[in-house]
Amino acid sequence: MRKYVFIFKSEVMSSLQYIWNILFGFLGYLVILFIFFQLWQYLYSDPSQVIHGYTMEEMVWYVIVTEVLWSSLGGRKLCMKISNDVKSGNIAYNLCKPYSYIGYALSSHLGSILLKFIIYVILGMSLGLLFLGSFPSISILSILVVLLSSILATIISTLLITFIGLFAFKIEDANPFYWLYSKFILVLGTIFPVEFFPQVIRPILQYSPIFAVTYGPAKLFVHFTLENAIEVLCIQGIYLVISYLLCLWLYKKGVKNLNVNGG
Amino acid sequence: MNVIEVKNLCKTFKVKKKEKGLKGSFRSLWHPKYQKIEAVKNIEFTVEKGEMIAFIGPNGAGKSTTIKMLTGILYPDKGDISILGLDPRKARKKLAYEIGTVFGQKEQLWTHLTPYDNFKFFGAIYDIPEEAVERKIQELSTLFELEEFINTPVRNLSLGQRIRCEIVASLIHDPKILFLDEPTIGLDPVVKENIRALIKRMNKEYKTTIFLTSHDTSDIEKLCKRVVIINHGELVLDDSMENLKYHYLNKKIVEAKMKEKVNLEDEDGITILKDKGYNLKIEVDTSKKSVADALKLLNPDNIIDINISNIPLENIITEIYKKEEDK
After folding, report:
1. Is residue A97 part of a domain?
2. A97 to chain B: which residues are within 8 Å by CB?
């Protein structure tokens, strides 16, 4: 375990070089939030109105949380890195090091986004307070559970994107699959809560990765109950195991048939 | 004691073959054709503990594929490999603790971190206790003279400094065998010489077995006592450097400065390489004519200055590669 902590720490040290990039990147996040704040203000004729179980304030907080989770993730970069590692044969050079590539990819990516995640959480919460004036009802327990759920969501997202990146073992370019996945999460998982979609597709969305990577933690932030918390954490636990096993399976299958050009 | 044992090692790659032109591109969508390339064919060799061996061959000969199979990066199709008694296919992780690798064309250091932080990172990767890593960094930074730049980010180092750090990073866990794949590629002659001296010192101090591939004959000549040549995936030569240099071609180069012009012509055992009247350069095949006989032809009284040397190693190796091509 110490080696993965060290990989994580090394990436955190490395990311400190890019602190200004992170801060400038937040500008895009700011624009998205502002647009949604205006949209919800327009859609909710009265701030106390409730649509599909959400008040306007809750809707804005929902988007703030899902966008923090999705924007700080750096999924496109991760998918490209994994896919390039496979295509260039770089992945092979990890085989003669005493660590698991999946563990390496996970700890290295989490380390590289830690700073971004913290900055986005602080700035996102500050913006929410600025726009709305107050938090939804929160307690120390709810904050701790939401934080834990957000960390789990980031780990699951990282594993799922790593899995997509590893498609490069089979196909030339994994990026189109990432594009589809990211649009799926963006449209169905960050902008609107699952309750806003037709009854027919709700069960599918409810148990899709959306639940584990965005909807679950955001829902807990706006509507915290102990039952919700247990349900979200249990589903995230299952997703964590499944996504890890998927990565391991594809990786093991891939490296057996690996062709690395000579030098 | 053998630390590397390779028996009947084979590796074949399946490479997609595309037909010419647009039509061919469309056809290969539905009926892809594959070509089998035998990269390594039945090779066998052993390496003893503490040996410095050069494993060489022209581009595409199969040397990197062999190294990758020895280090567990690639799975062989057939054959047996034993590295320190371990099979890289079955005990890849265990083997990783015992060997070090430096691929001259692949960076393993984190460029944003300093060499010191990189070494600490590698120490953690290999589960070495903190104090032991500190001790090792101190020891290796003295041996490889890294003190001046050990706290400078790797991206700001020169290529020579970076390669020294790459080698140190691969030695942090005290590997018993070090695989060096073109470690001096792209370096200037002075830095190359420096790296060679350091590798030699390391081999002497730690008794590390060195498995080296390089296209630079000076690397091979100055570091290794044994040469293994591979071409078209087959082992074509496995001999000591001494035998290769002094006996393989049985040829000597004689360069002489003469008082008077000599009219010498090619004959059995003698080839004139250069004839500028007073300056002569001839090649003597000692299996057909002795050097003494060649000198008699020049008339020793007529010689002002003379230099007798071996054929450069580069020429010998080129000759071996060519011989294989002709076969």
Report:
1. yes
2. 96, 125
Domain holding A111, by residue range, is: 2-256
- Quick check: B108 contacting A, CB < 8 Å? yes
The number of C-beta contacts closer than 8 angstroms across A and B is: 79
pLDDT at A146: 94
Q: What is the pLDDT of residue A260?
A: 59
Please check whether residue A263 lies inside any domain of the structure: no
**The pLDDT of residue B249:** 66
Q: Which residues contact A101 (CB under 8 A, 6 or more apart)?
A: A91, A94, A95, A251
- Give CA–CA dist A162/B199, Å, rounded: 38
- Residue A263 pLDDT: 42
- What's residue A21's pLDDT? 80
Residues A143-183 have pLDDT tens digits of 999 999 999 999 999 999 999 999 988 887 888 899 999 99
In chain B the domains, ranked by start, together with CATH numbers, are 2-245 (3.40.50.300), 250-310 (3.30.70)
Which parts of chain B have pLDDT scores under 50? none
A-chain residue closest to B104, CA distance? A263
Q: Check residue B72 and give its pLDDT.
A: 86
> Which ipTM was obtained for this model?
0.74
SS3 B188: coil
Is the alpha carbon torsion for A131, A137, A140, A144 positive or negative?
negative
Q: Report phi then psi at B4, rounded to 5.
A: -130, 130
- Angle in degrees, CA A64, A70, A72, rounded to 5: 90
Report pLDDT for A235.
94
**Minimal Cα distance from A13: which residue of B?**
B113
> Which residues of B, range 16-75, sit inside 8 Å of A by Cβ?
39, 59-60, 62-65, 68, 71-75
Q: Tell me, what's the pLDDT at A105?
A: 92
Contacts of A5 in chain B (CB under 8 A): 124
pLDDT tens by residue, B154-173: 989 988 888 889 888 988 98
Residue at A261 is within a domain: no
- Classify residue A226 as exposed, middle or buried by CB count within 10 Å of its CB (0-12, 13-18, 19+): exposed
CB B210 within 8 A of CB B187: no
Contact yes or no for A260 and B182 at CB 8 A: no
Q: Which pLDDT does position A177 carry in this prediction?
A: 92
| Residue A137 maps to a domain | yes
Tell me if A93 and B73 make a contact (CB, 8 A cut-off).
yes
Q: Which of residues 3-22 of A touch B (CB under 8 A)?
A: 3, 5-7, 10, 13-14, 17
Rounded to whole angstroms, how far apart are CA atoms B98 and B82? Answer: 13
Q: Supply the pLDDT for residue B271.
A: 87
pLDDT at A114: 93
Diameter of chain B measured on Cα atoms: 79
Chain A residues 218-237 with a CB less than 8 Å from chain B: none
Count of the separate structural domains present in chain A: 1
Contacts of B181 in chain A (CB under 8 A): 263
Q: Closest Cα of chain B to A154: distance in Å?
A: 24
Residues of chain A with pLDDT under 70: 259-263
Measured in angstroms, the CA of A40 and the nearest CA of chain B are apart by 43
